[in-house]
Amino acid sequence: MKSISTPTTLNKHITIPSLIFIIGVCVGTILFPDVTNTLLNTVKEFLFVNLNWIYVWAVTLFVLFLLYLMFSKFGSIRLGSNDSKPEYSFFSWLSMLFAAGMGIGLMFFSVAEPISHYSSSVFGENDFVNQAKGAQLYTFFHWGIHAWAIYGVVGLALAYFAYRYKLPLSLRSCFYPLLKDRINGKWGDAVDVFALCSTFFGITTTLGFGVVQINSGLETLHIVSEGGFSNQLVIVAVLTSLAILSATSGVNKGVKLLSKINIISVVLLLLFVLFFGPTVFLISSFTEGLGNYLSNFFELTFNTHIYESDTLPWFYNWTILYWAWWISWSPYVGLFIARISKGRTIKEFIAAVLIIPALFNFIWMSVFGNSAIWFDANEAGGMLSALADNADQLMFQFLEYLPLTETISFVVIAIIIIFFVTSADSGILVMNGIATKNAENSPKWQMIFWGVLLAVLALLLLNAGGLQALQTMTLITALPFALIMLLFCVSLMKGLTIDQKYYDRNFSVATVPWSGEFWQERLKKIVSFKDSKTVDAYLKTTVKEAFEELCQEFEKNGIEARINTAEQPVKTEIEIKHDVINNFIYGVKNQPKTVSEFMIQEENLPDLDHSKTFYPKAYFGDSREGYDVQYFTKNELISDVLKHYERFIEIISDQQNEMFVSSNYNQKK
C-alpha cells in the first residue's frame, strides 16, 4: 500500500482484514441478492423475536448510566487534562455532532415515520386522536434521548480514554482498564476491524437511501426522468466528490463549514413549515406531545409488548429495529463526536449530546410529522397515508400542501445533499482514522480511496438490489456490539473511579503545615502587590536555588532530577523523568491577576496604581490546580516540593492507579 509520492499511514493489521470482509460481503450480496437477503432476514427475525429484551435492557442501561454520570461527582471531570479548553465553539460543536448523528434520517423519516404510525392499526382504526398521539409519542421515543444515549456512551468512552489517558482515539482504547496493554495486540485489532466494517456498511446504506430520496425529489420536480441507474450514478458521483473534497480539507474547514450551513438551512426550513403550516395546531401538539413523552418515559423504556401479541410485529419492525440501527451506527458517530469533543466536561458533554439534539428532533418531528397528519386528515383526504410505504416520496408529496412548493422542494434536496456530504465526509475521516490508528499527516489519496470505495460499492448494491441485505447485516451486528458497549460502561466507570481518587488524594499526614516563624516578613508580602519583574526575580533566585539544592539531594539518593526554565511566561520547574510512569513535575510560573476596582479605590489598603498584579503560581505535571507560593521561603518551597513528591510516590505505588499514571507512556505507544 504505497503511494508513488507519499507513503501510506494505513495499518495493515486493520485495513487488509477489513477490506477483505467489506468487499467479500458486498460481492456476495451483489451476486446472490435474493439468497443473501433471505438468509440475513431469517437471522435478523430470530434475534429481534427471541433476543429483543437484550436491546431493550442495553439501551435502558445506557440512558440511566449517562444520566447518573451527568449528575454525579464525575460530571466535572474534563475530557482532557484539567486545564484543556474546547477546540470548537459551542455552536460549531453542536452543528457537527448533530449533522453526523442524524443527518439524512431526519429528512427521510420526518414525514414518513409519523404517517406510517398514524396509518397503522396499532393505535386504533378511524380514531384520529389516538392515532395522531401514538404516532407522535413513538416518533419521539425512537428519535429522542434513547438514540442519543447510544451515541453518547461510545463517544464519551472514546473521548475520555483518548484525551484523559492519552490513548489512541480508537474503540480498542475503551477496553484499557480491562485489558491494559493487550489492547495493542490482536484483540485491539479485532475491535478496530469491527468498527471500520460497521462504519463502512452504515455509511454505504445511508448513501443508498439518500440517493433514492434525492432521485425521487428530482423526479417530482421533473428535473430527471423516472427511474434509470444513470441518474443514481450521477448523483453518487457528485455527492461523493463533494464529500471527498470536504474530508481532504479537514474537520476545521470543510466539515465544520458544511455543518454550520446545514443547521442554519434546517432551522430556516423548520420555521417556514411552522409558519405556513397549521401553526397553532403544531405548537399545541408539540407541547402536549412533549408532556406525553415525559409522563410515559419509563413505560416506553421498559415496554416489550409481550402482553400485546397484535403489536409485537410492529414493535420488532420499529422500536427494536431502531435500537439496532442506532447501535450499528454508534462506532462511526461515537468516533466523530469524540474527535470534536476534547476539552468538554463530562456533564457538558452528556447534556449537549443527550438533551439538546433530542429536543431539536422533537421539534422537527412535531412540525413535519404533525403537519403531514393534519394535512392528511383535513386537506389531502388520506392521500399521504396511502403513500406510507413509499418513504422516499412522502416528503415531496407533503410539500405539495405548502406554498412555494417547487422552491421549497429544491431547498429540501439541497439540505439532503448537504446532510449526506456531512455524514460521508465525517465518515471518511473516521474510517481513515480507524485504519491508520489515528496517524497524523495521512496522505490525501487515502481519503479519496475511502470515498471512491464507498461510491463504487453503493452503486453496485443499488444496481443489484443488494442494499437491503447490507442494511440487514448491519442490524445483525448490532447485538454483539450492544454487549461490547456494556463493557465500555464498566471500563469507563472503572477509569472514572480511579481518576476521581487520584485527584482527591490529599497530602500525607506527615507533611508539615506553613509555620509562623517569619510572620513579620509574610505580613509585609501580604499587604504589598508585585509587578512582573519582582516575581521574575523570585523565580530566578529563591525558586531556582531551592530546586538546585533539591536536585543535588536527589542525586545523592540515586535519582536524576533536572531544572527546566522558560521566558514567556517566566517559569522554573524541577522534573524527574521516568520511562513508564508519568514524569514528576513541580514548577512555578509568573502568573498575572486582575485586581478588583474596589480594592484599587479602598483607602485602608496599600496603594495600587494598576488593575493587574503578578504572583508566583505553582503548577504540576498532572495538571492539578496550582496555588500562590509567594510567601514561601527557600526551605518551605523545598518542603512543598517534597510533599508533592511524597504524594506522587504514594499514588504510583498503588496498583489500581497504574493505568492512570502511565498516560504519557500510552501516548508514545
From TrEMBL:
It comes from the Bacteria. PANTHER family: HIGH-AFFINITY CHOLINE TRANSPORT PROTEIN, HIGH-AFFINITY CHOLINE TRANSPORT PROTEIN-RELATED. Belongs to the BCCT transporter (TC 2.A.15) family. Signal peptide: none annotated. It is a multi-pass membrane protein. NCBIfam families: bcct (TIGR00842). It comes from Paenimyroides ceti. This is BCCT family transporter. The keyword rRNA-binding does not apply. The chain crosses the membrane at residues 12-32, 52-71, 91-112, 140-163, 190-212, 232-251, 263-286, 320-338, 350-375, 408-435, 447-467, 473-493. The keyword Kinase does not apply. Keywords: Cell membrane, Membrane, Transmembrane, Transmembrane helix, Transport.
